[in-house]
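REQUEST FORM: STRUCTURE PREDICTION
Request ID: SP-0412
Submitted by: Lab K.M.
Chain count: 1
Length (residues): 330
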Amino acid sequence: MTTYHELLGTTEYSTTSDIKKRYKLLSHRLHPDKSGSVILMQLISHAYNEVLCGNGNKHCELIHIKHDKILLTKKYAEKLKQELDLQKINNIELEQLILELRKKLDHQSCENKRLTEMLEKEQRKNIISTVLPYENKARGKRYRIIKFGLAIASVVLNIGLAVAAITLLNSNDTKKVTSKIENRLIEPVVIPQKVAVEELIPPKPKLTTHRPLEITQVVGEWSLFQPIDQPPYIAIRNQAGSYIVQRCDLQFYYYANMTQQRTSLPANLRFMYQQQNFLVYNIDYGIGSERDHWVKSQSIKINREYFSNASFLDSSQILKQRCDRGIAYK
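STATUS: Completed
RESULT:
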């Protein structure tokens, strides 16, 4: 036989709050408005009252509710469980149906997209088909015009070639006739060639005279030199054996010792000639080409060689006086 606790699903140790929750749950499920019955609702309310009064362990084989006898057995409870299981199964089936419907909707949406794309393509084709005839007509007209122009050009070229061929034939005939007449009338005249006497005589070499340089052992000091039958000059020698020379023309010359020559030279050095064991360069411009450079500086670097200005001022003044007067050095 079942007890009131078994009917509500409670125990002796259940609290009042648990009993109330259980009662609310059963009343919500077995209410007449929600596929329940009035008899079951009365039975649950009666069991709830008995459990609250402390009679939960009593058997409820026969219960009189409003003059109605209800026999509650285990079989009836099993039937209720079966009904609940059926409802669960139905709910699962409904969920599966909902999933299938969603899949179908997704598939239909994909098909709709594909159909819309196809419609757009067809619309584009229709637009192109409406535009192409006009373009084809215009192309046909252009092709005809070009073809007609080419035909006219070919005719003109053929006429020009024919005229040119006729003129060439006429000119060749006239040349042949004139050449025959000239051969008969004119005899060739042999003109003797004159041999120039000047061509047989070789040219005389030009004699070039360069002023010799007096070698000195004094290093790093300007000094005055007076060659025989030549104007004076001042010069300085460095340790490498090269010279810087100033003559009466107030130009500075660089006498580079051939044993100390380098592959590259500055741009302001202009080669003049070779004399003795030196290569003579004229210092056209830049450092060392003017008198003030030597007066204001202690030493000047020319072609990677250093030259001092010791006693340059005195020597240059004496050189100027001698060059102006033309007095020979004694």
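NOTES: The helical segments are 4-8, 16-29, 38-53, 74-185, 197-200, 291-296, 312-325.
Reviewed by: T.R.
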